[in-house]
Write a structure and sequence with these properties.
Shape: globular
Structural class: alpha/beta
Subcellular location: Cell membrane
Largest sheet: 6 strands, mixed
Domain ABC transporter: 6-230
Protein name: Thiol reductant ABC exporter subunit CydC
Bound molecules: adenosine-5'-diphosphate
Length: 230
């Protein structure tokens, strides 16, 4: 059971701060594709921070009925794969950076993830292919490439839940459109929590849309109902 249940989730950055998350209730049943949409300051990043256990929180987050707080970091990462805007690229080859998600990955698994993340042409264009250095002392990686590297890692991690953090933020429309294909493939057979301040074309990827305002979920409807209401 990989259902994710969030109850009365509260988070603040200092004891005398206002609550950035002021009692979030949210359900992600297995197989659901849910977008969480809200304006700047609504609490979206704080929600991602709680889910990735970057920030301490009050209330409960359970995965398959077990509190996330009781899990080891590795076990959380095996169940929730995060596609970050700026994936961490350490000073090493692209191959090693991808393998971070699954150290024992075979070349075949690596190539499959690369193809699914729509990175084939990119890897082919690199001077040393997968052995090209991408970290601090390596080649520059564009926003769209970075996002697809994050998707390839998520595919290698093969987690049942995909957490997408503002996947098209800062990308031009053409780059964003190309990313949809990789995202749609990565989402197949997985539950998805998509965090974004602007749904736009991403709406075609989800079946439900939750709206966040001032640290709370104020509505959760089907994508169809959301489109009619918007
Ligand atoms: P969003 O991602 O939707 O823009 P955030 O989760 O970043 O929202 O912010 C929610 C609230 O928490 C805002 O009032 C914001 O100012 C506050 N906040 C966010 N990060 C910090 C931080 N590091 N320290 C103090 N307050 C913060
Ligand atoms: P905009 O507001 O600039 O249209 P969108 O995120 O809605 O931003 O779309 C960005 C680009 O992606 C547009 O060119 C749009 O036609 C295209 N697009 C939108 N949805 C999809 C999709 N599901 N698959 C492929 N391309 C899409």
């Amino acid at each position: 059971d990989n259902s994710l249940t969030i109850r009365d989730l509260r988070l603040r950055y200092a004891a005398d701060d206002a609550w950035a998350l002021a009692g979030v209730d949210l359900d992600l049943p297995q197989g659901r594709r849910l977008a969480v949409v809200g304006p700047s300051g609504a609490g979206k990043s704080s929600l991602v921070g709680a889910l990735t256990r970057l920030y301490p929180y009050e209330g409960s987050i359970t995965l398959g009925g077990t509190s996330l707080a009781d899990w080891h970091g590795d076990d959380v990462r095996a169940r929730i794969a995060v596609v970050e805007q700026q994936p961490y690229l350490f000073d090493a080859s692209l191959r090693d950076n991808l393998r971070l998600a699954r150290p024992e990955a075979s070349d075949e698994q690596l190539n499959h993830a690369i193809a699914q993340a729509q990175l084939d042409d990119y890897v082919a264009s690199l001077p040393r292919g997968l052995d090209t250095w991408v970290g601090e002392n390596g080649i520059r990686v564009s926003g769209g490439e970075a996002r697809r590297i994050a998707i390839a890692r998520a595919l290698l991690a093969d987690a049942p839940i995909l957490l997408l953090d503002e996947p098209t933020e800062g990308l031009d429309a053409g780059t964003a459109a190309r990313l949809y294909k990789a995202l749609a493939i990565a989402m197949k057979g997985r539950s998805v929590l998509l965090i974004t301040h602007r749904l736009g074309g991403l709406s075609s990827l989800v079946d439900h849309v939750a709206t966040m305002e001032q640290g709370r979920i104020v509505s959760c409807v089907t994508t169809e109902a959301y489109r009619e209401g918007a």
